Amino acid sequence: MADLAVVDLDTFLTGKIDVTHKPKVVGVSLLTGKTESLTYPEFVLLSTLNSNTWVSQREILTKFEVAQSQLNKLAEHGFILSDGDDSLAAELRLRDSRIDKLHWNPYQAFAYMRNRWLDAGPDAQAPSDLMGYLDDYRQLINVYGNPPAHFHEVSSKRRVELPQTIQNEGIFKTLLARQTARYFSTDKQLPAADLSCLLMYTFGYHGTYTLTDGYTVLKKTSPSGGSLHPIEAYPLILNVEGVESGLYHYNIRDHCLDLVKELTTFEGRALAKQMTAAQEYFHSANVLVVLTGRFDRNFWKYRNHQKALKVVEMDAAHLSQTFYLIGTELGLGTFTTAAIVDDIIEESLDLPIFVEGAMMIVGCGYPINEETPGGFDFNPRAR
Ligand SMILES: Cc1cc2nc3c(=O)[nH]c(=O)nc-3n(C[C@H](O)[C@H](O)[C@H](O)COP(=O)(O)O)c2cc1C
After folding, report:
1. Is the CA virtual torsion 275, 279, 285, 289 positive or negative?
2. Pocket of ligand 1 (CB under 6 A)
3. What spacing in Å lies between the alpha carbon of 182 and ligand 1's midpoint?
4. Which of 130, 150, 178, 378 to mutate to test the pocket of ligand 1 (most atoms within 8 A of CB)?
5. What is the mean pLDDT of residues 281-304?
6. 172-184: per-residue pLDDT in tens?
7. Among 82, 117, 202, 370, which one is least packed by beta carbons within 10 Å?
């Protein structure tokens, strides 16, 4: 239910504006994720129909106060399923069956569909609140005031001082050097050996463990919920020595690239910009890697589970940090972005909704530091 502001016509004609709020029924379709207003008879129909039984249109039209056009609208938006032959009806039936067959928790399926970001068209603006521009922060502070404090304090019964620790070598050096790069040089090619290393040590597998007779899991450099490793990597190659630009799938078993879509570098950069929600900088990278989650693989174990979707998302986030660290170790600038346009990615990779979905995009190249947004000064912590 939502509020609908209604101007009272009688008082409006006497020169006054009298706004009352009337309740309005709004439906959110699990199968499309979209919100639609419902008339009261449509609401009555939806709350009466049994979700597991097919009913003839004739019966619905006789029993309920809805017209054929309303029935068509409800079917188009996925509030009811139709047995029609058209491709939309077939796609919605498929999505409906996947929710059951793949063991989606219905609330998770709902959250997933609502949280997808859909293409806003060629004039789409970058989402300023997910960007790092200094000016945006000035505006944010002007409008919202200061954010909650950096450091969180709890009421404590006792404080324990910790020994001083200063580490500058090995993994510590890499961790301290890690940072997000944004603008990249388009002149310098990434050696294929570096791409190979990034893919192998971020997404590749380094062996197997046998958990029980006939059931093995893969050993990778990042942890994964249930050891299922459901994240797939799709490199969008834009400037790599000896590798044609295009959209590929990283084949983890054979450690190779399988071409999904041939693209010129120009087309690849345009696609990169579209996928990263029109952000200005990431499409100058040498390679972007689209991370997707295979829900069917994770849900094999975490059936109808409230945490399952979160686990797939967190798996992707772990891989993102591993990608940063390996890129840093190789002397590359790396980035991650959650500001991605799901339907562009789904279409480019032909991802079946509810089976495999976009999670985030990482990428790397040779940063042009002076153009990094903000050009922030780093002040090391006083020890
Ligand atoms: C989940 C997540 C989403 C992010 N999304 C974006 C993004 O959309 N655009 C962007 O420019 N940076 C994005 N970043 C990078 C952050 O802005 C960056 O990590 C932060 O400013 C701290 O800087 P540092 O990584 O250099 O330490 C994202 C980082 C994370 C972890």
Report:
1. negative
2. 130-132, 179-180, 182, 279, 336-339
3. 10
4. 130
5. 97
6. 999 999 999 999 9
7. 370
- Cα separation, 115 vs 312, whole angstroms: 14
Is residue 237 a contact partner of residue 268, using CB atoms and an 8 Å limit?
Answer: yes
Look-up: residue for tokens 């660290």?
325
0.85 cut: is pTM over it? yes
Placement of tokens 């919202």 in the chain: 144
Task: Report the separation in Å between the CA atom of 323 and the middle of ligand 1, taken as the mean of its atom positions.
Answer: 13
Ligand 1 centre distance from Cα of residue 239 (Å): 23
Nearest atom in ligand 1 to the alpha carbon of residue 182 is 11
Amino acid at site 331: G
SS3 content of the chain, % helix, strand, coil (to 5): 40, 20, 40
What angle in degrees, to the nearest 10, is found between the helix axes of 40-48 and 68-76? 60
Terminal-to-terminal C-alpha distance of the chain? 55
Q: Which atom, in ligand 1's list, is nearest to the CA of 181?
A: 26
Radius of gyration of the chain (CA): 26
Q: What is the mean pLDDT of residues 198-205?
A: 98
How far does the centroid of ligand 1 lie from the alpha carbon of residue 12, in Å? 50
222 close to 318: Cβ distance less than 8 angstroms: yes
**Ligand 1 geometric centre to CA of 181 (Å):** 9
All structural domains of the chain? 2-101 (no CATH), 128-134+175-371 (3.40.109.10)
